[in-house]
Amino acid sequence: MPTTRHPSPAPADAEDQILQGGAWLPHGFQLDPHSHVQGQLVYAAAGALATATERGTWVAPADRITWTPPRFAHSHRFYGQTDVRLVSVPLDLCAELIDHPSVFAVSPLLREALLALTDEPERRAGAHRRLLAVIVDELADAAETSLHLPEASDDRLRAATDLLRAEPARTSTLAELGRAVGASERTLSRLFHTELSMSFHRWRTTLRIHHALAHLTDGMTVTETSVACGWSNPSTFIDAFTEVLGQTPGRYQAGLRIHAR
After folding, report:
1. Entry's InterPro entries (predicted)?
2. For the chain, which terminal residue's Cβ has fewer other Cβ atoms within 10 angstroms, N or C?
């Protein structure tokens, strides 16, 4: 698989290039909605990425990998200077993985296998296929992580979530959002649970974590990020971030520096 391993502006044909292995992409680079006949794994060895489908948005920092099954329309946005690795999964191996888009934790073995597959030319016939089989086997046993932000279908709920997406730091209560979109607090609360399978508080926290990952990856401090994303103080932000990611924002940023070396 050809690769581009040095940080540089993405070429006009970046999508075609990185579908073959890896590339460095600048902060904010986007791949418009598209789909593949095969499945696709996308891993940010440094930086972070968001994958969006009709079922919602998944964010993957450097210790996560996104999975998109065949023929799911999806788009990507990259945060920070991103060392992105893309791997196509043949249809016969897709059956080993779940049938919906998701994010998985990246074990040390999985990371090394992904780097080897996207860095090294194939020296022996079938070597890449065997390495890909190891990756799929690791993912088949991996647990899904909690960085999924589902999409609303009800017009009132979608209007409420659109307000929050436009302004993640917005401090509106559920009742205030209801008045803005023409629904009662009780109705909106029910819709969050029935349509999105999470509470209003959990959905907004996940949205803010998505934005926090982007800000931290782009070099914003922990305090600046907590303010930008709507937390009342840095300690509250640190607690929420640690609950979802399993590490503090400071440790996450330290890991970014290690991965970027």
Report:
1. Homeodomain-like_sf, HTH_AraC, RmlC_Cupin_sf
2. C
Q: What pLDDT, on a 0 to 100 scale, did the predictor assign at position 123?
A: 79
Residue with tokens 């060895």: 45
Say whether pLDDT at 114 is over 90: yes
Please give the residue that has the higher pLDDT: either 98 or 256: 98
Average the pLDDT over 80-108 and give the result: 91
Query: Sign (positive/negative) of CA torsion 29, 33, 35, 39?
Result: positive
Query: What's the pTM value of the predicted model, to 2 decimals?
Result: 0.78
* Residues in Cβ contact with 219 at an 8 Å cutoff, skipping those fewer than 6 apart: 80
Q: How many residues does the chain have?
A: 261
How many other C-beta atoms can be found within 10 angstroms of the C-beta atom of residue 150?
Answer: 16
Q: Which CATH number fits domain 14-141: 3.30.230.10, 3.40.30.10, 2.60.120.810, 1.10.10.10?
A: 2.60.120.810
Class at the top of the CATH hierarchy for domain 151-260: mainly alpha
- Reported as a pLDDT band with limits 50, 70 and 90, residue 119 is confident
104, 109, 110, 113: CA torsion to nearest 10? 180
Alpha helix segments (H runs only) across the chain? 14-18, 91-94, 108-119, 127-141, 155-166, 174-181, 185-196, 200-217, 222-228, 234-245, 249-260
